[in-house]
Amino acid sequence: MRRADLVVVGAGVNGAATAWWAARSGLDVVLLDRFEAGHERGSSHGGVRIFRFAYPQAEYVALAQQARRLWRLVEEETGETLLEETGGIDFGWQPGVAATAAALAAAGAPHELLGPQEAAERFAGFAFDGPVLFHPNGGRSWAARSVAALTRAAAAHGAEVRFEEPVERIEVRGDEALAHTATDTFRTGRLVVAAGAWVADLLAGLVPLPRLRVTLEQPAHFRPLEDGLRWPSFIEHAADAAFSTYGLFEPGVGVKLGEHQVGPEVHPDRRGFEPDPVALARVSAHARRMLPGVEPIPVAVDTCLYTTTDDDDFVIDRVGPITVASACSGHGFKFGPATGRLIVEVAGGAPPPPRFALGR
User: Fold this and answer.
1) In a 10 Å sphere around its CB, with 0-12 CB exposed, 13-18 middle and 19+ buried, how is residue 5 labelled?
2) For the chain, domain boundaries
3) Class assignment of domain 83-139+213-308?
4) pTM of the model
5) Does 2-45+144-210+313-356 carry CATH code 3.50.50.60?
6) Which pLDDT tens digits describe the chain residue by residue (360 residues)?
7) φ/ψ (deg, to 5) at 202
């Protein structure tokens, strides 16, 4: 039986960041993942993810500002380039754009509102029909590279990292939790379950989770028609106050464009990897409508899993010795090092932010 100060189940961005922050804080840490390093079955793999401060909720703006500082710290420790600030734009449904601009202003985050003609001149690859919010700190996080860097940094601080070590069962004994694998048992007073789409299976009967939807999402990449066009990360707001489409440029591949939370519900062990032609046709139609600077024929297609709550907020909370750190609702990658630090604090007994609490 292996005892540790903190055991993390799941080595995606949240799990790896949790292990990194806990180990650099001096804790004895074990990080477990059921799959091989760099696998593509979950939510933290592949090329790029959007980074942005631009949220209408003050809590997320502040968390993104903190994450930016911590991503730079991970870069210092690892020598990797993980976050590139190419700028970000929000457009579409104007109440959503205005609420985001107000939240940025309240946080003192740099931004500016552009008229559609000025925005089209600055960002010639897009078509706009209304004002555009520009925030210079937007950009892209390199996904697989960031998870690998966090994992290496955790190990450099003394964390024990075990890939291909599936946790088969979790047990609670008093104020301790036991994570059982086929070959070992890990005992701790602080067990963090950051297993993404598998969290409900692992914690069934142990933690009263909210309703979680696991969906299979399918963004595509499109080739720019010209070299030298400026491609900030972008969010198109929809009239229901969510965002309907998003995208960013991935060097060497093209402009990534996706729909938000529209994929079919799946179980993570029974999901497919083949493109859905109907969904692909919808994404191509979005490209024709809003991105005149690309050839609207996909050159690459990705699949990934979203684990989503009904209110789109995260779950970071503790029940006894178990801390749930999952359900990022399709917008969590950018916060990785900041949520990792928060998870360590909650696992140590700090109250969770009300927005992320199980009983919200």
Assistant:
1) middle
2) 2-45+144-210+313-356, 83-139+213-308
3) alpha beta
4) 0.96
5) yes
6) 999 999 999 999 999 999 999 999 999 999 999 999 999 999 999 999 999 999 999 999 999 999 999 999 999 999 999 999 999 999 999 999 999 999 999 999 999 999 999 999 999 999 999 999 999 999 999 999 999 999 999 999 999 999 999 999 999 999 999 999 999 999 999 999 999 999 999 999 999 999 999 999 999 999 999 999 999 999 999 887 566 899 999 999 999 999 988 899 999 999 999 999 999 999 999 999 999 999 999 999 999 999 999 999 999 999 999 999 988 899 999 999 999 999 999 999 999 999 999 999
7) -70, -35
